[in-house]
């Protein structure tokens, strides 16, 4: 069965607004979760590592003030895209490790108009 | 910096026509090579993990093999439902508990009935 869920699966927003994406670990406690972004016909690119109870670690080139990550519990991490612009339109996917394999959520398609 | 190159970018097969997908990698020290399947609009689905050269793993019509420079995903007598993008990723042994994966761009497999 599914290990990770994401909500929403699709979201359309206007330029300048903020959007929150939830990632839930379904059957175990995840101290670490990962957020990826995937553009059409491109690789999955790691954006940040979300750590429960502490600050997220962002990859080089990812704006931490634009992509806010909150890992408030052992089963929930959220990614907020602030002041979204059309170039932020992408497929956002979260993942967890269980125990030595990374399992991915179903993804969230973000479209910014 | 870790690098993963997958070939071909796209592959069309007739049902029952066996073939192989290639994943070439460069990594400072391999801590795992992973194969995932991704259907359109979905998150990656875990298939296999390989850790050392010479290792092989099988699941139904799929068999993954590993050498020191590349991995192959062999598909035997494929069916239309095997149509998907197959992703290869590596994890290196730097950074202790760091679990960063580097992905290739994937191979889009289409199996015609």
Characterise this structure.
The complex is a heterodimer of chains A (113) and B (113). Chain A is mostly beta strands and 113 residues long. Helix content of chain A is 0%, strand content 54%. Chain A has no helices and 11 strands. In chain A, strand 5 and strand 6 form a beta hairpin. Chain A is globular and about 40 Å long. Chain A starts with a strand and ends with a strand. In chain B, a hairpin with an 8-residue loop joins strand 9 and strand 10. In chain B, the strands form 2 sheets. In chain B, strands 2, 4, 5, 9, 10 and 11 form a 6-stranded mixed β-sheet that branches. A 5-stranded antiparallel β-sheet of chain B has the order 1-3-8-7-6, with no helix packed on it. Classes of the chains: A mainly beta (113), B mainly beta (113). Chains A and B meet through strand 5, strand 9 and strand 10 of A and strand 4 and strand 5 of B.
Structural features:
heterodimer, A: 113 residues, mainly beta, seven-stranded mixed β-sheet, four-stranded antiparallel β-sheet, 11 strands, globular, B: 113 residues, six-stranded mixed β-sheet, five-stranded antiparallel β-sheet, 0% helix
Provide the succession of SSEs of chain A: EEEEEEEEEEE
Shape of chain B: globular
Structural class of chain A: mainly beta
Largest sheet of chain B: 6 strands, mixed
Helical content of chain A stands at under 10%
- The helix/strand class of chain B is mainly beta
Count the helices of chain A. How many?
0
Quaternary state of the chains: heterodimer
Average pLDDT across residues of chain A? 93
Report the uncertain regions of chain B: none
Helix content of chain B: under 10%
Main sheet: strands, sense, barrel of chain A: 7 strands, mixed
Radius of gyration of chain A: 13 Å
In total, how many beta strands of chain A?
Answer: 11
Describe, in short, the structure shown.
Chain A is an all-beta fold and 113 residues long.
